[in-house]
Amino acid sequence: MKISCKKVNFSCDSELFELCESLANAAFPSNEMLFPTTFSEYKSEHELLAFYQSDLRDDIMGCCASDVDIGDEFIGFCALVLRSSFVYLAFFALCEDKRNKGYGARILKYLQKKYQKPVVLEAEKPYIGANDLALRVRRAGFYTRAGFIRTGYSIAYFDEIYDIYCTEFDDEILADYKAMYEDFARQKSANFELKKDN
C-alpha cells in the first residue's frame, strides 16, 4: 500500500481543491468548518495536501512528495497551518472506504517527518452523555496510538470542547497555539476558551 502526496495549488488545482472541499463537507459537521470557513480563505501559512493510493509512485515515507497521475486514487486530504513552533492539523479526512486500513496513521507519521516540527491537533472531548461517545473514544485512541499525547489542555468554541493533542508540547507551543486562536477569533468575530484540565 503506497501513498503519494500532492500539495494543492489553490489557483491552479481547482478540480482537486473542490474534491478536498467536498470530502471536508461530508466528513465534518458545519459548525467545525470554521478555521478557515472555506479553503479559499487560506493564506501563505496554510497548506492543503491531497493523498493518493498508487503502487506506481514513490511512497510518502520515502520522499517529501511525489507527482500524481490521473489514474491514482484519491484517498483523502489534510489542511495545515504552519506556525513558528508547530504544525497545526486543522482538518484531516479520509474517504469513507479508506478508513481503518492504516492510511491515517501513515499520513500522520509522514507529516511529522516532512515538517520536522511538533504536530498539534484537536479532537472532541469524550464525556459521559455525548451522543457519539464511542466515536470520540476511538478517535482519542487512534491519535494516542499514532504517537500523540494529550496535552492536559482543552479548547472550547462554538459549543464544543476539544482535547488538544501534540507530538511534543511545551510553553512555547502553548503560547503560539494561543496566539493562533487569538488571530482566528479576530478574523471570525468568535470566542474561544483555552483551559488547563483539572
Structure description:
It is built from four helices and eight strands; from the N terminus they run E-H-E-E-E-H-E-H-E-E-H-E. With 198 residues, it is an alpha+beta fold. The chain has one domain: Aminopeptidase. A hairpin with a 4-residue loop joins strand 3 and strand 4. The longest helix is centred in the C-terminal third of the chain and has 18 residues. Pfam families: Acetyltransf_1. InterPro entries: Acyl_CoA_acyltransferase, GNAT_dom. This is GNAT family N-acetyltransferase.
SSE layout:
Layout: E1 3-7, H1 14-27, E2 46-53, E3 73-82, E4 87-94, H2 103-115, E5 119-124, H3 133-145, E6 149-157, E7 160-166, H4 171-188, E8 193-196
Parallel strand pairs: 4-5
Antiparallel strand pairs: 1-2, 2-3, 3-4, 5-7, 6-7, 6-8
Descriptive key words:
8-stranded mixed β-sheet; Aminopeptidase; globular; about 200 residues; alpha+beta; about 30% helix
Record the strand order, biggest sheet.
1-2-3-4-5-7-6-8
Shape: globular
Tally of DSSP β-strands? 8
> Helix tally?
4
Q: How many discrete structural domains?
A: 1
